[in-house]
Design goal:
Keywords: Membrane, Phosphoprotein, Transmembrane, Transmembrane helix, Two-component regulatory system. This protein is α/β, with parallel strands linked by helices and 589 residues long. It contains 15 helices and 12 strands. It starts with 7 loop residues before the first helix and ends with a helix.
């Protein structure tokens, strides 16, 4: 018996599926009876059998009954299982009548033919076991009774000339049918269960994808809503630091505000970085870079912080590094920055060491090991397995003094996954911590001819340039136009894309700074209209969204560059000057 417990829902589904699969076999069985039984009488006629008339009457009546049942099936909805079952019952009745009325001199050929027919029935009939048992029981009762009614000698002769094997085969018939039926039902059950599980998984995946999209859309919106005013704060603080303040107290207040805004910007960037990595929106940008220069810049960045805490900051390069590594310098910088920042933050005395050494090298690939060690407070043993989890800080590190988002190590781990690497941790509480990882880099030792350094911007150098600033946020308008005026660059403003396009048509500009999300007409639509007008004026997308797909969308829709808010003045000027210089060179040519 089946050990599988089938639900009522599955039984209903199986009945439909079984009917569909067995339909043609049962029809073939019925059609074979309609055509095969008249052929039986023809054989008797060719052999000059004396009872051919009686045989023809019985066979004709049976074929008529078979045809009526088949018509019922095709035109009145009788199931194929019942079609085959009723025809089998009719076959038993009429064949029993033939055995009871038509004498045979020998039954050897008849037994052989009936056994062959039974094998055919096993191949085409698909029944539950109860129908097969009912038919076999009727055969085992009706056939011997019919033969005995003809004469006891006929029954004995039938048994001697193959009847025993036929009846044994008839006994096996239900088990063969049951075995096929059970196997098919069990196979369909597993397929049906797997299909249901796949459907459930697809629904769950769809729900997860929908939730991910909703999360991404939410964070994208919040990114815009938070980073837009934050851009104003960062920019205004920078401008105020450039002004002559009346007292040291005012300068201290502005510096405190700058520290807080920078910290807030770091928190927002961490959250968005983590979301971008989880949403697969981060891809490594493989470009050549100077590893020595990278390490020098990192050391210059952290020297003031280490000196403030009286810590020794040591950078060790144990092997000569290649002239150029080919990878994502920015993401490598972010990984090392997170680790050194943590090391300095959680170390009160002693030393913080960054060690870089070569592990192996081939003609094209070099494997480097990076280690960041400190003599800080360490991480408790019971928390080392969770230190890379989201929003987690190790034990006594989560104090007010050392508070933070807890995202730094999580982001570091995920970024290293993009590099095909894993981070390793060794830590002893109150003695120190070591983080290490290995990365394979493509490299080259070919010395490139360095481009000449650009000269500093001279007062009035861009006095003839005309820039259009498009943004619906008045603070950002004020900030951008103030930055431009400090370099003697004329700036017009527009509050939305429609107004920007109208101003573009009314006067020529050398550059357009275009926000993406605005009322009336957004930046994408306005830029599309400008490009359709045949203009190649540089249009820089200035947006609070740092998602890679939005950047790709902007660059594929006619924008010339992409500047993310909040931005530092140096980033703003570098991008503006680069496009104004490019525009000036194209005009000269």
């Amino acid at each position: 018996m089946d050990t599988v417990v089938y639900s009522s829902h599955f039984e209903a589904v199986w009945e439909k599926e079984h009917e569909r699969k067995s339909q043609w076999g049962h029809r073939v069985f019925s059609i074979a009876l309609i055509l095969g039984y008249p052929a039986l009488s023809v054989l008797y006629y060719l052999n000059n059998h004396p009872n051919v008339i009686e045989l023809f009457q019985l066979v004709g009546s049976a074929s008529l009954c078979f045809s009526v049942i088949l018509t019922w099936h095709f035109f009145y909805g009788l199931s194929s299982q019942k079609l085959a079952f009723y025809n089998y019952l009719i076959l038993i009745v009429f064949h029993s009548a033939i055995l009871a009325t038509i004498p045979h001199q020998a039954y050897e050929r008849a037994c052989f033919n009936m056994t062959i027919c039974l094998i055919f029935y096993c191949l085409v009939i698909r029944w539950p076991i109860r129908k097969a048992i009912q038919c076999s029981v009727l055969v085992l009762i009706f056939f011997p009774v019919a033969l005995y009614r003809l004469s006891p000698h006929a029954l004995a002769l039938f048994m001697r000339e193959g009847g025993v094997f036929f009846f044994l085969a008839q006994c096996a018939f239900p088990f063969i049918v049951w075995q096929r039926y059970s196997n098919e039902k069990r196979a369909f059950y597993y397929q049906h269960s797997l299909r249901e599980q796949n459907d459930l998984l697809e629904k769950q995946v769809a729900i997860a994808e929908q939730a991910t999209r909703a999360k991404t859309d939410f964070l994208s919106m919040m990114s815009h809503e938070i980073r837009t005013p934050l851009n104003g704060i960062v920019g205004v603080v920078h401008l105020m630091l450039k002004e002559k303040l009346q007292s040291d107290f005012q300068k201290e207040l502005i510096q405190t505000l700058q520290f807080s805004s920078n910290h807030l910007m770091a928190v927002v960037n961490d959250i968005l970085d983590f979301n971008k990595i989880n949403s697969n929106h981060v891809k490594l940008d493989h470009k050549p870079f100077d590893p020595v220069l990278l390490l020098e810049n990192l050391k210059k960045t952290f020297l003031p912080k280490s000196r403030d805490k009286n810590l020794d900051l040591v950078f060790e390069v144990r092997n000569k590094l290649p002239y150029r590594l080919i990878s994502d310098e920015g993401r490598l910088h972010q990984i090392i920055t997170n680790l050194i920042h943590n090391a300095i933050k959680f170390t009160e005395s002693g030393v913080v060491v960054l060690s870089v050494r070569e592990i192996s090298r081939s003609e094209q690939i070099i494997r480097l090991q990076f280690e960041v060690t400190d003599t800080g407070i360490g991480i408790p043993f019971d928390q080392q397995s969770t230190i890379f989890d989201l929003f987690t800080q190790g034990g006594n590190q989560g104090t007010k003094k050392n508070e933070g988002t807890g995202l730094g190590l999580t982001i570091t781990k995920e970024l290293l996954r993009l590099f095909g690497s894993e981070i390793r941790l060794k830590s002893i509480p109150e003695k120190g911590t070591e983080f290490s990882f290995d990365i394979d880099f493509e490299f080259t030792d070919l010395v490139e001819v360095e481009a000449p350094m650009s000269l500093p911007v001279q007062p009035g150098q861009y006095a003839d340039a005309k820039v259009l600033v498009v943004d619906d946020n008045t603070t950002n308008i004020l900030l951008a136009t103030t930055f431009l005026k400090k370099k003697d660059i004329v700036a017009d403003t527009a509050a939305n894309g429609k107004e920007a396009f109208e101003k573009f048509l009314s006067r020529p500009y050398d550059l357009i700074l275009m926000d993406l999300r605005m009322p009336v007409m957004n930046g994408f639509e306005a830029t599309k209209l400008i490009r359709e007008h045949g203009s190649d004026i540089p249009v820089i997308a200035v947006t609070a969204s740092s998602f890679e797909d939005e950047k790709e969308r902007a660059m594929s829709n006619g924008f010339s560059d992409y500047l993310v808010k909040p931005f530092l003045p140096s980033d703003f000027y570098n991008m503006v000057f680069a496009h104004l210089d490019k525009k000036a060179k194209s005009v000269e040519i």
